[in-house]
Every structure is written in C-alpha cells, then in structure tokens.
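Entry details:
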Amino acid sequence: MDMKGYVADILHVPASILTDDLLNEIEIHALPKGAFLIRQGEPQVYVSFLIDGIIRGFFLDANGQEVTDCFAFRTGAPAMPGPDITGPSPISIEALTDSTILTIPLSIVSYHLETNMELLKYAYNLLMESTKMHWELKIAMYQYTARERYQWFLQTYPGLIQKVSNKYIASFLGMNPSTLSRQRTALREKLVSDSYPER
C-alpha cells in the first residue's frame, strides 16, 4: 500500500482528499508511554490522529488535581484537545502506552479546509462525533448511578478496563478509585452469580 492509501485507511477518508501537498506535510511520530503530545495552555500547532496505542486527555482543576477528560484508543481517532484549534490547548494529552501519532501542521490543514469541500465535510463529521461522545459522557455523569457509569464505560471503551489505571478511569467517571473498585467487584460477583445460580 502506498502512502496515500495507508493514510486514507488510517483516517477512514477517500484518497481523493489527500492531495500531494497535504501528504508531503504528514509525519508519523512515536510517542512513548508517559510522554505528552501537548500540554494544557500550549499553542496548538498540529492536527493529530492516533495510529496505535492509548492516550488520554486531562486538565487540572481549581485544586491542581488531574481530571481525566477523554481517552482515545481506536486507530484514526483524533488526538486533539478540542474543537477550537485556534487557541491554546485546554487540556494535556498524554500517552498511557507506547503510541504512534500521525500529525499534520495546523496551518496546512486550515488552508485546505478553505478549498477542499471533502476535507471540510470530514472535519465536520469528526466534530459532530466528538460532540456526541462528550454529550454521552455528560449524560452518564449526571443521570447514571456509579454502577451504570461503570457499565457504560465497559460498553463504550471495550478492553480499556484491563489496560488503563483505575485512577484515570475513576476520574473520567467522576468517582474515586475505591468506588470504582467496588463496582468492579460487584459486577464480577453478579456475573458469577448469574452463571451459577443456586438450585
């Protein structure tokens, strides 16, 4: 597969969107576990996408404590701080595992968004998907019980519970690690009980 086909496959876009001058600016970087793609308050210079690995976005609250805002783990997922790409980053983005990131200079993307309707439509769809995911999280945070939030996480982020620290998941779900641990234990016990009902 050539570079255009490779990138189109990762980003799930028609190859026609990827003009030669856009392709020439694409870079692929290794992001070791614990490294930062961007820190809260830094200017945004690149549009980034996850190729492999797991990353999280987080910000500091009024007390200086980290609050996990999002996770990305699927190939092609945007590794972006937020929809406003013109201002400083509202969150930090950290690699939770050794990861690989595809980057494109923001200036190049901004130029092509003005002239390439296919690319503009793709960016719009990404924005709508991001908005949908954040609304789902907000609904889970304010309308679900702790157990329902945990079950929602298992369904929405399959496999991450075994790969991501409890403290990050607990922060993401608006609970402390001990509450999350209780929910995990309760669900395991329920699964065992359902599998081996008393006779």
